[in-house]
Amino acid sequence: MANSGKLEKAQISVLNGKNEGETIDCKFNPSSYTIEKSVNYGELNATGSGASIMQFVDGNAETLSMELFFDTTDRVEADSSSSSSEVDVREQYTKHIDTLLSVDGELHAPPVCQFVWGDGIAFTALVESANKQFTKFLPSGVPIRARVNVVFREFKTADYHKSEVSPESTDKTKVWTVNDGDTLWLIASEEYGDPSHWRTIALQNDIEDPRTLETGETLELPPL
Questions:
Q1: Which of 76, 166, 155 is closest to 123 using CA atoms?
Q2: Are residues 131 and 29 in the same domain?
């Protein structure tokens, strides 16, 4: 970014589909943006204690939200003979945002895009929502000013999830001695980090009813 003190213009680039390579230039930079990240937890009840254990389930994709401002007033003032399509803020700007929410014929889904603003942010995402508000009009009713609240949801490929979010366990079978209050759900959470793997333990030990564990019995915990 240059040191002139003037911010580079933000833009949205289409990364795939029939409009791949097209960009939507933001004439006015957003005044602010918000990035939100959250995770999901499941609540497990500990048998006999009345207490609960919060177990991490998964993480949600990040979201980037902002208000974009579009205006064609200068075109109206520069040339009063301009056609309605040349000054219609929908034709010049907001319809391009709509394409990011529409199903692309080549992809059978909306396209992936990237919001870039100088060196500060490059966010690859799908557009989750766009709330448009038109605030200024010509006498004919053609809108020439709009505010668009956009929410981008982070996009990551399946290969990323396989490489970065792959549940693992030791490659050796372990032995677990059942203590009072143990359940297959709690054992799976402790050993594998995911209570849903209780079925792995049940199959390995021929357990038909997961609620019939006896204190002192031993269970084999196979690798995933």
A1: 155
A2: yes
